[in-house]
Each structure stands twice: as structure tokens, then as C-alpha cells.
DNA sequence: GATTAGGCTTTG
């Protein structure tokens, strides 16, 4: 049996063989032989057991080295351990999170997920007869449970020694006398996270209250952050020991004095009684418990507590100040006074969130996410004093950010694309200073608000990029301007040196000495790279990792790779060209019969400046919704395509309309239903039931966006997508694959941006130039590590065909020099 | 056994 459960202590049962020596996780690498070594660690995470159709099993766990003292820092090395086959299944039944395990007989492999999980660059692999793993449950009396249980056990130890512990007396906040040193309880009505003072300490500023209704300010000065009160929100309860009462500005205030200590508690009735404290020993008895409960219950009846400014992203309105509970996904310095924090809370704002473009190299954490996730990400700009604090944050951490400002539109933010500056994106700023409690706090994972947020995050729809069945390959072929040529195997072979003509991965890797890659896989699959010929020979569906070069791609004109996709009927269509659109506008402007404008609209006229300047100015008919302010929404009649574009720089939303059958109707099903700055929006001809209706915005001040307008007009909007066909090669074979569902992730650019701005288009063309430079031989092109999904679809004749798509892979730009062609380092 | 700050009507 490769899995042994060790007994507690030195009793009978399996023991780790004495001849094996334990090696630190930090020392794991592929350059050492580990056959007589073990690795020991505590199980931080156990992933679900994966079983394959063929009856095989895979289990992944993450273990962390345990060091003494027991309050190990989170920097202790953690490593992925992957178990294959029977050991995976047996171990799954024998281990729990928190157990300590000793692995032996493992091999070491490169971790494909190191960029993503930031864990150890290598994985431990356990498979076959030599693999062995020993499990020890955590020692008693602390059962395998939460840290809370440990606390309570140390706490009861404290209680049992209570004869030695001085009995504390607490003074009500209404009975303070200046000059005395007291112990108090209170409910927090205002707080500032610890901030650096001009002296030697950090200062926490609190205002607390109790049944006396007095509101007392407290100043806590401590050099170490961990000694400060751990306050998460208004309503939390604090217990302060040894604070001095001082009269300041004719009010009583409390200031920390020698022997000071603090505990904080959740303020919710029925909430956790676990005190937040850094003290290793503390007193806490039934009377304390009673006081906390009394304050909770008193505060719950009080309307005097200020309302909590905490809200999820979906509830944030422009201009609001609010507190946000979130998870940090990535961060990047913008300049010396500003840091970008990319966060999410699992909810989606009705407003478009500001995107900030930063160099992928400058980003800590992933530099891009699948589009579904990108839409949930709020970009926060933290200024001045918060930059220093933000530097210490790690992606993955749970945060509460206090007094964030939601700013509609945007301002002079470095890194914004020009088109973004015009639109009504929501930007989030954490202004400098600590007024209004501005600041950031890392929340522990077991905090109830974090638990609640994680439930919301888990309910988020998974990225739909793996759903390849919605659109079959023949549809992709149909819209393809140049059908792919078939490959003559003999031609292909002629290009490959005789010595290098291998059919397996080993051969392929043996001649590929360049280990750099222009792409990065972002998937979780634990699978080795295989050759393209193996991919072709494999079953009809599956995921494969390959190391390949780009032989060719289509379309060469990159604008042709932009398509319009309807998520409702899963159809893909070409973006209409300007000539065709100009024709639609011109045709509509010619036959404008009599019609009665809708009663909600005010009719008027708008002047379109002539081109060239000085030439005749044209006057066009417009209809404005009375609901919306001037410039917000304009129904425009009789304009040319060019005039519409000119006007869209001055009006936020332009809906081109015409008269038809005495009614105001949209211009044409194929024409954009909306012009917004440099962006145009199209609707699905098949799914839309368009009519000119007035948008209704619930709540004052809500900013019109394309979604609200599309909904009002009965239009099912089409989404811009990118679609390319790449021909990949390695020494074994070549293969045509699509870059489609993952194209935005691959380039780190949204298709919508690519349709609207040159910068985004440049990123795509530079990426392709780098992978497939003009001239030079194919052999010199950069290598790419890709994840390929192989799948089956049915063509129009009902025949199965095999298709491939690139998934979970991103292009990584050559760092220096910033030359779009392939750099020497990649040869 | 000094010193820090002493919320606040914010705005890149």
C-alpha cells in the first residue's frame, strides 16, 4: 500500500523508513535525485479527485512546509503534489486538509501553473510502485478543525489559571474621569486603519460608544501593526485595556498607555466570539462574553450607528463613496504616486468599468483574464500613502478598501487609451490621505464577509471558453475569407531535416534546445507536452499541451479577423464594411416619407459642419428623448455615415433612424443601432425585434449605456469577437487550429477595443509579427507553449469532423527591445 | 515612560 496513515505519537503503526532523509520544499528542483529523500508538509488544500473514463485517477494537493515557531509566516514554501493512479484514490480517502504528510518516491516536474498560482516552480509527482505517502493527523488536543478551536483551547487553559490573572474592571464611557487609566468596552462608530505618524509609531484613530451614548475618541499609538485594533467595519466591538483618559477640546478622549492591549469582535448579534488579537495569552471569561453580547444586542436596536458604507460592486453608483470587500487579482505600479489594484467581488456592475492598460511585465498576478472575468474586474487607483501599503499586498488576498470613490467618466489617468477617456466608464479611486477612514485592510479568509463573498464568486458562471460545441467548424469555415489549403504531407516532410523527423515528443524536445516561449499556458491541466502528430493520433476530444512554432495564419489582413457574434443564436457574421454602410445611410436618407414622431420625443434640428471647413453646413432632423438630457441620446435622421461619425464626437449616444410606413424605425437591421464615440454597436438581425422606444432608467442619474439602449430598442446586441486560423508546426507534423474563444485572452486585448482603437489593433498585429515575422525561415520563429482543445463537430452534411482551438494561452510580448519583429534572444 | 493625532463635509 503506497498510502500509510501514521499513528499519533510513537505508538504502533507505519513509520517513515529511517534511511530516508527529509528535504526542505525550498530545495526541490529537477537537478537533484530525490530517490532517498522525503518532503514533509501540511496539507493546505486538497483538490477534488479527478477520475478519467479509462478508470485512472489524479489528485492534486498543495502542501506547505511547517517550521517552528508554529505561527509560520505565509512565505513558507508551498508546492503542488500531484498523485496519479491508485495512490491518488487511496490517498484521497485517507487525507484531510490540515494533516501533515510525508511524500517519498516522487519525481520532480516543472509546474505548468507557476505563473498562475505563484507556488513552487516545480511539482512533486507521485506515481507507480515506488511512490509512497505517509499521513499524520494533527496532534491532539487540538482536533483537526479551525484555528478557532485552538484559540478556545488555549483560552480555557487561561481560564483555568485565572487565579493568577488580575480581574479587570470596566468603566462605562459615560463615567470617565480625566487623568485616570481605565479598561473599557465600546462599539466602533468610526475608525481609521493604522497610519504612519510623524513620530515613531502607527496611529489608529477610533470613536466608540456604549449604552451611555457618549462617543469617545481614542488614539492608539503602536510601533507594530499587529498590536493595533483589528477593526473591519463600523459596529465592531473593542475591548481596550489600560487607556488613559484625557480632556481634549472639552471632550474626554482615550489614549493608549503602558500595558495597553486591545481585542476586537464581530459586532453582529450571534456572531463569532473569537477575539481578534495578536496576544498569545489573554483573559476572556463569561463576563466578557456577556459584555460583548450586551453591546451587540444594544447596538442592534440603535439607529445611532452610522449606516455601513460597504456595498458590492453591482450596487455602486457613480460618485459614491463606499467600502469594498474584494479579492485582489493583480496589481501594477502606475507611477510613484499611484498603484493599480485589480479586484473583483463576484458581482457585476451595471456600469462599464474603467480599463487601465499597463505593461504585462509590470503586473504582479495575471496580466489578463478571460473576457467573462474581465467584465467583473474593478480597477482601483490607489494614491500616495496607499501606494506603500499596496506594495505589501499579494494577489489572492481578500481586502476591504475603505472610502473608495466611484468616478463616472474618467480623468487624466496614465495608461488609458484615448477612446476610453470619452466614455462613461466607472473608475475607482482611493484618494491619498486617511481622512474618512480611507485605507486598505487585509481580511482573513474565515471572516464572515469573505465567506459570503466567496459563495457569490463560486456562483459566477464558469468561463464559457470550453463550450466549443455552440459553433461548429463548418460555420467557421463558411465565414472564412480564404479557405485553408490542404497540406501535402510530402511537402511538409521535405522541410524537415532527415535527422529531426521524429514522431514523438522526446525527439521533438531533443532538437529543440531553445526553452524560451513566446506564450504562456494559463490552464490547470497537469499534462506533458506532446508532439502534433501525437495530438492528431489521439482520441476525438481532449486537451493537449504542445510546443510549436507558427507556420502561417489567416487572415493576413487583421481587420478581417474581427467578426460579430450573437450569444443568443450562436451565429457569427462579418462586420459590414464602410462602403456597404454608407450605402444604407444614403438609401435611408433619400426616402423619408411623412411620419408622426413618438409622443415622448421632442423634435428638432442639428447642424452638421461641412467638410472641408467653410463648405455648406447641413441641417438634419433629430428627435430627443425628454427623459434624457441634451447630448445624452439623439435619434438622428437623414445623415450620411460620415456625418453620423462626425456628430458622434459631440453627442454621447446616436441612434440612426428613418421613417418607414409613417413610423420612426431604426435605419436598417445590418446598420449599427448605436454610435458611441468611436464605438459602433450592431444588433442581431435574427434575434432582434427592433422598434424605436424610449429607454427607461430606473433611479435618477443612471447613465445610459449600450445595454440599456439595446434593451429599449428591442435589439439583441452582437459582440465583437476575434477569429483567426493558425497553422502550427513542430518537427513531427503541422496542424490547423482556430484561435477564437481564447483570442482575447491570447492577445490581452478585447475585440471591442480592437474594433474601436488603433492601439489595440497594433497589439494584435505586433504579436502576430513577432510570432511570424516576414522573411526568415520558419525554423527561426519563436516557440510557443500552447494548450490545445481537440473536439468534434458536425458539418452541414451531418459528418463528424475534428477541430482544434487554442485555449488558456496568452502571448507574452518580448520585453526588450520593444521591437515588434522577433528579437535575437528568441532565436 | 518622549513623540505621534486630535476623524469629517473628500475629488488625481
Describe this structure in words.
With about 850 residues, the chain is of the alpha+beta class. About 15% of the residues lie in helices and about 30% in strands. It is built from 17 helices and 39 strands. Strands 1, 2, 3, 4, 5, 6, 7, 8, 9 and 10 form a ten-stranded mixed beta sheet that branches. Strands 23, 24, 35, 36, 37 and 38 form a six-stranded mixed beta sheet that branches. A hairpin with a 2-residue loop joins strand 32 and strand 33 (about 680). The longest helix is centred in the middle third of the chain and has 16 residues, at about 285-300. The structure holds one DNA strand of 12 nucleotides.
Summarize the structure.
By secondary structure, this protein is α+β, with helices and mostly antiparallel strands.
Amino acid at each position: 500500500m503506497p498510502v500509510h496513515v501514521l499513528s499519533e505519537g510513537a505508538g504502533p503503526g507505519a513509520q517513515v523508513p529511517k534511511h530516508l532523509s527529509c528535504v526542505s520544499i525550498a530545495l526541490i528542483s529537477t537537478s537533484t535525485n530525490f530517490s532517498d529523500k522525503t518532503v514533509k508538509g501540511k496539507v493546505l488544500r486538497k483538490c477534488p479527485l479527478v477520475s478519467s473514463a479509462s478508470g485512472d485517477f489524479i489528485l492534486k494537493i498543495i502542501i506547505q512546509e511547517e517550521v517552528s515557531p508554529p505561527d509560520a509566516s505565509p512565505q513558507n514554501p508551498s508546492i503542488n503534489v500531484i498523485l496519479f493512479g491508485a495512490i491518488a484514490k487511496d490517498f484521497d480517502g485517507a487525507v484531510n486538509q490540515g494533516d501533515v504528510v510525508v511524500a517519498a518516491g516522487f519525481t520532480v516536474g516543472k509546474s505548468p501553473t507557476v505563473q498562475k498560482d505563484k507556488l513552487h516552480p516545480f511539482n512533486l509527482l507521485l506515481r507507480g510502485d515506488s511512490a509512497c505517502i505517509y499521513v499524520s493527523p494533527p496532534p491532539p488536543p487540538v482536533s483537526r478543525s479551525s484555528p478557532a478551536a485552538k484559540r478556545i483551547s488555549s483560552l480555557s487553559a487561561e481560564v483555568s489559571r485565572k487565579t493568577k490573572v488580575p480581574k479587570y474592571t470596566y468603566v462605562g464611557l459615560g463615567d470617565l474621569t480625566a487623568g485616570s487609566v481605565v479598561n473599557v468596552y465600546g462599539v466602533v462608530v468610526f475608525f481609521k486603519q493604522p497610519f504612519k505618524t510623524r513620530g515613531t509609531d502607527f496611529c489608529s484613530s477610533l470613536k466608540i460608544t456604549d449604552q451611555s451614548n457618549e462617543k469617545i475618541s481614542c488614539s492608539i499609538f503602536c510601533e507594530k501593526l499587529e498590536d493595533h485594533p483589528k477593526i473591519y467595519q463600523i459596529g465592531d466591538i473593542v475591548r481596550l485595556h489600560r487607556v488613559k483618559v484625557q480632556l481634549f477640546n472639552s471632550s474626554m478622549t482615550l489614549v493608549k498607555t503602558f500595558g495597553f492591549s486591545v481585542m476586537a469582535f464581530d459586532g453582529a448579534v450571534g456572531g463569532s466570539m473569537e477575539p481578534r488579537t495578536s496576544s498569545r495569552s489573554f483573559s476572556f471569561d463569561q463576563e466578557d462574553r456577556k459584555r460583548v453580547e450586551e453591546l451587540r444586542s444594544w447596538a442592534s436596536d440603535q439607529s445611532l450607528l452610522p449606516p455601513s458604507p460597504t456595498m458590492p460592486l453591482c450596487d455602486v453608483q457613480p460618485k459614491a463613496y463606499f467600502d469594498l470587500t474584494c479579492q485582489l487579482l493583480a496589481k501594477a505600479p502606475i507611477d510613484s504616486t499611484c498603484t493599480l489594484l485589480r479586484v473583483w467581488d463576484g458581482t457585476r456592475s451595471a456600469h462599464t468599468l474603467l480599463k487601465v492598460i499597463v505593461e504585462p511585465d509590470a503586473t504582479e498576478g495575471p496580466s489578463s483574464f478571460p473576457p467573462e472575468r474581465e467584465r467583473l474586474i474593478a480597477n482601483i487607483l490607489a494614491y500616495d500613502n496607499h501606494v506603500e501599503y499596496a506594495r505589501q499586498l499579494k494577489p489572492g488576498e481578500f481586502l476591504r478598501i475603505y472610502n473608495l470613490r466611484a468616478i463616472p467618466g474618467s480623468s487624466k489617468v496614465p495608461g488609458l487609451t484615448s477612446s476610453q477617456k470619452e466614455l462613461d466608464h466607472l473608475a475607482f479611486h482611493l484618494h491619498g490621505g486617511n481622512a474618512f477612514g480611507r485605507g486598505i485592510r487585509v481580511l482573513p479568509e474565515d471572516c464572515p464577509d469573505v465567506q459570503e463573498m466567496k459563495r457569490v464568486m463560486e456562483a459566477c458562471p464558469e468561463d464559457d471558453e470550453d463550450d466549443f460545441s455552440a459553433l461548429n467548424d463548418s460555420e467557421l469555415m463558411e465565414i472564412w475569407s480564404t479557405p485553408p489549403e490542404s497540406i501535402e504531407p510530402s511537402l511538409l516532410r521535405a522541410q524537415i531535416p532527415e535527422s529531426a523527423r521524429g514522431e514523438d515528443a522526446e525527439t521533438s524536445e531533443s532538437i529543440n534546445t531553445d526553452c524560451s516561449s513566446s506564450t504562456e499556458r494559463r490552464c490547470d491541466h497537469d499534462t506533458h507536452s506532446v508532439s502534433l502528430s501525437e495530438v492528431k493520433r489521439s482520441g476525438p476530444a481532449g486537451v493537449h499541451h504542445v510546443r510549436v512554432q507558427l507556420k502561417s495564419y489567416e487572415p493576413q489582413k487583421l481587420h478581417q479577423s474581427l467578426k460579430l457574434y450573437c450569444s443568443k443564436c450562436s451565429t457569427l457574421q462579418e462586420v459590414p464594411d464602410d462602403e456597404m454602410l454608407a450605402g444604407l445611410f444614403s438609401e435611408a436618407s433619400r426616402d423619408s416619407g411623412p411620419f408622426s414622431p413618438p409622443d415622448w420625443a421632442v423634435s428638432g434640428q442639428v447642424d452638421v459642419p461641412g467638410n472641408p471647413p467653410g463648405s455648406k453646413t447641413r441641417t438634419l432632423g433629430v428627435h430627443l428623448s425628454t427623459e434624457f438630457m441634451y447630448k445624452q441620446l439623439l435619434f438622428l435622421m437623414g445623415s450620411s455615415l460620415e456625418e453620423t461619425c462626425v456628430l458622434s464626437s459631440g453627442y454621447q449616444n446616436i441612434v440612426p433612424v428613418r421613417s418607414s410606413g409613417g413610423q420612426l424605425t431604426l435605419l436598417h437591421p445590418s446598420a449599427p443601432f448605436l454610435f458611441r464615440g468611436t464605438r459602433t454597436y450592431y444588433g442581431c438581425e435574427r434575434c432582434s425585434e427592433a422598434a424605436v422606444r424610449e429607454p427607461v432608467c430606473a433611479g435618477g442619474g443612471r447613465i445610459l449605456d449600450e445595454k440599456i439602449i439595446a434593451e429599449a430598442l428591442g435589439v439583441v446586441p452582437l459582440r465583437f469577437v476575434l477569429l483567426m486560423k493558425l497553422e502550427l508546426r513542430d518537427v513531427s507534423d503541422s496542424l490547423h487550429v482556430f484561435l477564437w474563444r481564447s483570442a482575447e485572452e491570447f492577445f490581452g486585448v478585447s475585440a471591442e477595443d480592437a474594433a474601436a482603437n488603433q492601439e489595440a489593433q497594433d497589439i494584435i498585429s505586433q504579436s502576430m509579427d513577432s510570432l511570424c515575422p516576414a522573411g526568415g525561415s520558419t525554423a527561426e520563429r519563436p516557440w510557443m507553449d500552447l494548450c490545445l482543445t481537440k473536439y468534434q463537430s458536425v458539418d452541414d452534411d451531418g459528418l463528424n469532423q475534428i477541430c482544434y482551438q487554442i485555449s488558456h494561452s496568452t502571448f507574452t510580448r518580448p520585453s526588450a527591445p520593444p521591437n515588434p519583429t522577433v528579437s535575437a534572444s528568441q532565436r
